[in-house]
Amino acid sequence: MQKVRQQIEQHKVYPALARKLDMSGTVEVFYVINRQGKLIDAGIAATSGSEILDKAALQAVRAAVFPPIPDDAWRGEAQKQFKTKLVYSLTDD
Prior knowledge:
This protein is of the alpha+beta class. The chain has one domain (about 1-90): Fusion Protein Consisting Of Minor Coat Protein, Glycine Rich Linker, Tola, And A His Tag, Chain: A, Domain 2, CATH 3.30.1150. Helices cover about 30% and strands about 30% of the residues. Helix 1 crosses helix 3 (about 50-65). The protein is elongated, with a radius of gyration of 14 Å.
């Protein structure tokens, strides 16, 4: 599901306030998508310790446009949950 992760990464924004306050961390988000690629649910699986970064990670998931799931993937399941870690690091720029 590399395309799914790429969509989230494309929408990831490092909040200006977090940059100003030298905040960094890793947020693990969970999200549920259906076979058509529609986001059903999203939340924080593991917090970064910063509400600002956690909210930014959730916004990235909610802004992503997911592709439809191929017919041969997750047979018999109408939707599936995934987890992705988003790293916010000031030294990666």
